[in-house]
Amino acid sequence: MLMREALALAQRGRGEVEPNPRVGALALIGDEVVGRGWHEYYGGPHAEIMALRDAAQHGHKPDTMIVTLEPCSAKKGEGGKKTDACVEALLQAGIRRVYVGAIDPDPRHRRRGVVELEQNGVEVQDGVLAEDSLAINRPFQKALTLDRPWTIAKWAMTLDGKTAAPTGEARWISGPESRRRTHVIRARCDAVIVGFRTAQIDDPELTVRHVEGRQPIRIVLDPLGDIGDDSNLVRTARKTPTWVLVGEGVDPLRTGRLQDFGVQVIQIRTAEDPRHLHLREAWRELRRRGLRRVLVEGGGSLTADLLSWGCVDQVTAFVAPKIIGGKLAPTPVGGEGRPFMAEALAIQEWSWRASDEDLQLSGFLY
What we know:
alpha/beta; Cytidine Deaminase, domain 2; nine-stranded mixed β-sheet; five-stranded mixed β-sheet; 14 strands; 23% strand
């Protein structure tokens, strides 16, 4: 069945499109497939657009579309949407029949696409392998319930699970290809986030450099406002948007100084003590400010805190064929940990692929 081929195409976007849905599409003339497409990455063209482009590149003008999820009807910019409405593209392309897997589970848009297509004379049949279409989109259905950004935790580590040497040196654990892939992920996120210690020790730029792509907002969680004026992030804040999240008790003179450098300072209430921000409130604030997909690049204490707050949805780790050893060398997830193996967090939809000499492991937390 052609819908199963569309579902297989949709799965090619796994790990790249969330919090958006995985969608696959086939463009047909009669019963012949003349174009194939899938939603390849967050912020990129939707599956229907890709299938139409594929057909056009081969000189075909399709009349039928098979798509695993109801075509979107929301206009670009509506609710933060990054692409034009697929319904409009299908109508402009002259599509006369559409076979839909599942209706959009988002209550804000549910059946809007189908209704608009039918009102414009398009024959629509929905519910074709609907359960399968929904089953591959558990992350999307989770994302619909969130009041915070979809959060990816990423780290590079040695084979024995260390993210730096005991001295704190971490450049470079992973190889060039892994670093390039990290920059691809950055370019496909709204923001990249680190804790204060990572900003202080690594003095990162957190920009997209090894690939083409948009620059994410750079965010530092710095409860005490201790980040230095001479740090890369502060010095370049006027060129690349930089936010620093501080506690409510930070000296106004310090926050004003950061603002003079072009840093956007956001005050968040603290939890337990002045050295710990209330992360759930912080993440809600990020969502209120329009961020939907963010990348956390450490350190281990921040990742541990986010896991304990239930604020991590996706993980990706680059494992290098190196061994550091030592009790003092940091690990990707710090904190007190979980006392029993039965309490370990289980990663779902686990996948791996080679990254030159490294190994990239990825999965989801439901």
